[in-house]
Amino acid sequence: MEGRIGKNSVPLHGSIDKSKILDVKPLKSLIPIFSMSSQTPPLGQYPSGFSPFFPFGAPQQTPTEVTPNGAATPIRAYRSTPWAGDTSSTMEGFSDQHTSGKKKRGSPKSRSAKLSLDKPKRSQEPPVDLGALVGISPAQKDDGSREMVNFVLMAFDALRRRLCQLEEAKELSLGSVKRADLKACSILMTRGIRTNMRKRVGSAPGVEIGDIFFFRTEMCVVGLHSPSMSGIDVLHIRGEFEEETLAVSIVSSGEYDDDAEDIDVITYTGHGGNFFKKDKHAIDQKLQRGNLALDRSSRELNEIRVIRGIRDAVNPNAKVYVYDGLYKIEDSWIGKAKGGGDVFKYKLARMSGQPSAYSVWKSVQKWKSGSSRTGLILADISNGAESIPVALFNEVDNVKAPIYFNYFHSLRHPKSFSLMQPSNGCTCTKACVPGDLNCACIRRNEGDFPYTGNGVLVNRMQLVHECGPTCQCFPNCKNRVSQTGLKHQMEVFKTKDRGWGLRSLDPIRAGTFICEYAGEVVDRAKVSELVREGNEYVFDTTRIYGQFKWNYEPRLLEEVNPNESSEDYAMPYPLVISAKSFGNVARFMNHSCSPNVFWQPVVYEENNQSYMHVAFFALRHIPPMTELTYDYGVSRSDHAEGISAAKGRKKCLCQSLKCCGFYG
Ligand SMILES: [Zn+2]
Ligand SMILES: [Zn+2]
Ligand SMILES: [Zn+2]
What we know:
- By secondary structure, the chain is an alpha+beta fold.
- Among the domains are: 138-362, SRA-YDG (PUA domain-like), CATH 2.30.280.10; 409-483 and 509-548 and 561-582 and 591-620 and 630-664, SET domain (Beta-clip-like).
- The protein has 10 helices and 26 strands.
- Strand 6 and strand 7 form a beta hairpin.
- Helix 3 (146-168) packs across helix 4 (180-190).
- The longest helix has 23 residues, at 146-168.
- It is globular.
- The structure holds zinc ion (ZN) (3 copies).
- One zinc ion (ZN) binds at residues 426, 428, 432, 439, 441, 467, 473.
């Protein structure tokens, strides 16, 4: 149960018999003894980590005892059994994001299909801890940092995407993956690729307020909220007489649409009592497990991390989780559920002085439903060229608009432009299907479908080969991701010190296509001339770009192809684009030394000729209203002369910890 507020449960303020509340021990007198839920599963128990790990394997408990009833009873009087492990839970947050039919298909095996997930290699050896090999020290496993949290989250999602890709290559229809996130989580846990294993009261180092997650399992691997199903995460402490528990984080999935909700207050409904769907709330909740921990926390007044579950607009069956910072329990009482059973209610208030997180989502929701916003200059700078309007905002100064340009959604090639040999697309008759090696486009991608069923890029590659206008497949083929326009509600806004910038009102999931770099393709020989003229809208694929790891770690899947992990690709041919006169939203994206967006060359056929495009994808999950940035790279001549000789470079204002000072 995760804080869904029953309509009939009226808070009974003052109904708690305060005289029965026991003396409160200061927190420092309580010694943490162990952190049950963050333990690694016993080594060697599961082959290759494909079985459920510890939190999933535990049996469910159903309360059977009879406890006193009555609205005037304080929550403490409900105390029944000592802590027995937080194993009961609902399936909330476990809605499968991909649920379509499962049929086998007799098609040629792709390279991927050689790796059978159904029959993992059975090994007598315990899983090897890869933490050290990928650069995670034992200390970093215990205590995270921003860098480590990002590293683990990227490793998680890269592995999850690859598992989706492998599954989808075996299935008839796209989107039929059975919880690739659980498999990815299980593998990372058993291989020691995780952080913040040490449970704590207060914030999880490296997880920032406002961070978003698309799976509960992502919060497990970074230690924000350890149980992957239960809404309450607890810390075991040594009390005066017996072991006790404190609540350290909760996942609240109170309905986002509830307008009356105070954004800084949560009424959280305790745990249990709704085990039987048909008989919801007919059973009284017990003061045990998570409820017992919340009860203790309501007396200790310790900080509790709150994660808000919000329905994902893109996928209504799934949720996006927002870390909303630290809260404290202000009040607790016993309410009545619809079916007549007693439920524990806890009122949590957000601690002051924290950056906004959930409130941003609420604002966006209001704006989307039509409420006015200050600073709106233009409702759509694309003039209808994009299917989703791109608004122009300035809340910073009086500048009314960027310098004039023509909005254009793709590339304009000069007439004489010819780069590759004439080329044909695929001859698929419907939509191209993962695993179908008869498809020429899939073959060009080394046999892998480059996108998952919901359009997320799986790996960075030297080139992603998409189906194009020349292909005979349906226009809705899933291999045309970068040609289908903007997917998010974007806006161009005036930044404080970096001119215009780009951001999205919608959360953006890692690997999601954002936009292409539109503009006029120019002769490479003219680049220096353009730069001298002060053209700030030149995209040049021949620059030197910071390297980063985005793809999955092949060793985690026992794949032995050392080349696969390298992401240092040479460009097959240079491409220079000027977006000064013609361009789209991409021309407004600023540089950052720690960007949240990266570019990927994408090729497809048009008029029987291959054309390369520059497509931008989310590097990690990006919360709403966050500025989108990518690495502008360094020109080769500047690079050769060294940083000190870099003329014409601009001072970088990205403010990231890794900022190298200049770019361009
Ligand atoms: Zn196709
Ligand atoms: Zn095809
Ligand atoms: Zn094709």
